[in-house]
Write a structure and sequence with these properties.
By secondary structure, the protein is mainly α. It is built from three helices and no strands.
Length: 93
């Protein structure tokens, strides 16, 4: 039985939504697992605040931690997504 273009579009849309959901799930896991205060010292954070803003205060003290947290979680999600898609392609062949 030939598939119609509507059913093909539905399958494509479903796969696309599942892939987006999988990436967001990996991003959420990365945000929950990665904790930058374990590998960034207070001294490093203070030096970063002085470098970016010229002074260190309570408002700008956590900039390095948040930046590191978001970037490392995004890298975790991208690597996890690419690795899982590569594994799925290898298994399907």
């Amino acid at each position: 039985m030939a598939t119609t273009s509507a059913s093909r579009l539905t399958m494509t849309l479903a796969r696309w939504l599942v892939k987006i959901g999988w990436f967001l799930g990996l991003l959420y896991i990365g945000l929950r697992i990665i904790s930058p205060e374990k590998f960034i010292s207070l001294y490093t954070s203070e030096r970063f605040a002085q470098w970016v803003h010229g002074y260190s205060s309570q408002e700008n003290f956590d900039d390095l931690w948040v930046l590191t947290w978001v970037v490392s979680s995004l890298a975790f999600a991208v690597v996890g997504y690419l690795l899982s898609m590569w594994i799925i392609r290898k298994v399907r062949r």
